[in-house]
Automatic annotation (TrEMBL):
Residue intervals of the Enoyl reductase (ER) domain: 10-337
GO molecular function, one term: oxidoreductase activity
SMART domains to which the protein is assigned, alphabetical: PKS_ER
Domain of life: Bacteria
Species this chain originates from: Tepidicaulis marinus
InterPro entries: ADH-like_C (IPR013149), ADH-like_N (IPR013154), ER (IPR020843), GroES-like_sf (IPR011032), NAD(P)-bd_dom_sf (IPR036291), Zinc_ADH-like (IPR052711)
Pfam families listed in its UniProt record: ADH_N, ADH_zinc_N
CDD domains membership: MDR7
Protein name as it appears in the record: Alcohol dehydrogenase
Length: 341
């Protein structure tokens, strides 16, 4: 079978498409034929060794962690799923429910213990997969395990969004657009930020109530305060990190919530700490989520008919072009990779 592998050291130049034997299931395992994957910023981080991340991952390393496929074989003791089920591998293979533990945090796909899903067939524990909504294509379902669940927890589980709330979403990538869709499904109002007027126009078509071009309006926190009549937003989905976090503190209402998701503009920041107290800010790092939360999200998606936005798709053989498109950050929504027909 075909598998994408990182060899020798962390560099995109060391990625190659290889052949390896198809895995066989142990009694509690399933074999999933991977149909599709989608890319995340994390893929660039560990593939290139940014900030030293991924240096302890074993080589050769199979990348990618957002995907979906079909169960084609089960071990003798498997009871949770059956052959023919459409499933997604869970990002945290050993995090079932409740607060995250140190052991669960080490159970990521593409990590020290588990390989990724950029391969035609993947062997996983039956506990490490979950069904996907029937109305979604494999490519759409492949956006759920990381991007979808991160947004769900930032807005719904941790953010506790309510009808009428104001939610500020930074950017137009996969997590951001999921956050927009989940917020609108909950009856909230959404402010979307981007440096692209074209993307903001598309965001309005997806339901954004107000948009801010942060290049044209560098003080976007002030603009958000104006939009909310000086009150501030209830929730910020923090994607930028270094260059945006302090403005997020200004943008929230007193007692508002910041779901810290990413740091695409920098992994460190100078922050006026007094603002955290002055705003009574609730700040929480969103580390994707557990299986119970994934299942709650997929029930909501099935009930509402929500569909992720797929910007573009590439064949597995065109992995370099797909990763280059991710690095360019010109996409809107998710970039997909077709693995098996």
């Amino acid at each position: 079978m075909k598998a994408l592998e990182l060899h020798t050291s962390q560099s995109l130049e060391n990625l190659r498409l290889s052949e390896r034997p198809r895995p066989k299931p142990d009694p509690n395992d399933v074999i999933v034929e991977m149909k599709a994957a989608t890319l995340n910023y994390r893929d660039i981080i560990y593939l290139t060794g940014m900030m030293g991340y991924g240096a302890d991952f074993p080589l050769p390393l199979t990348p990618l962690s957002d995907g979906a496929g079909i169960v084609v074989e089960t071990g003798a003791a498997v009871t949770r799923v059956k052959k023919g089920d459409r499933v997604a591998p869970l990002f945290y293979q050993d995090w079932r429910s409740g607060p995250i533990t140190r052991e669960a945090s080490a159970s990521t796909l593409v990590g020290p213990r588990y390989q990724g899903i950029a391969q035609e067939y993947v062997k996983l524990s039956e506990e490490g997969v979950a069904p996907v909504p029937p109305h979604l294509s494999y490519m759409e379902a492949a956006a759920l395990p990381c991007a979808g669940l991160t947004a769900w927890n930032a807005v719904v589980t941790r953010g506790k969004v309510k009808p009428g709330d104001w939610v500020l979403v930074q950017g137009t990538g996969g997590v951001s657009l999921f956050a927009l869709q989940f917020a609108k499904a909950a009856g909230a109002r959404v402010i979307l930020t981007s440096s692209s007027d074209e993307k903001l126009e598309k965001g309005r078509a997806l339901g954004a109530d107000h948009t801010i071009n942060y290049k044209a309006e560098p003080n976007w926190a002030g603009a958000a305060l104006e939009v909310t009549g000086g009150r501030g937003v209830d929730i910020v989905v923090e994607i930028g990190g270094g260059e945006t976090f302090q403005q997020s503190l200004f943008a929230i209402r007193p007692g508002g919530f910041i779901g810290f998701v990413g740091f695409v503009s920098g992994a460190s920041a100078e922050v006026l700490l007094a603002l955290i107290n002055a705003q009574s800010a609730r700040i929480e790092g969103i580390s994707i989520g557990n299986r119970e939360e994934f299942e709650a999200m997929t029930r909501a998606i099935a009930a509402t008919g929500l569909r992720p936005l797929i910007d573009s798709t590439y064949a597995l053989e065109d992995y370099r072009a797909a990763l280059s498109a991710l690095q360019a950050q010109n996409h809107m929504g998710k970039i997909g990779v077709e693995i098996a027909a």
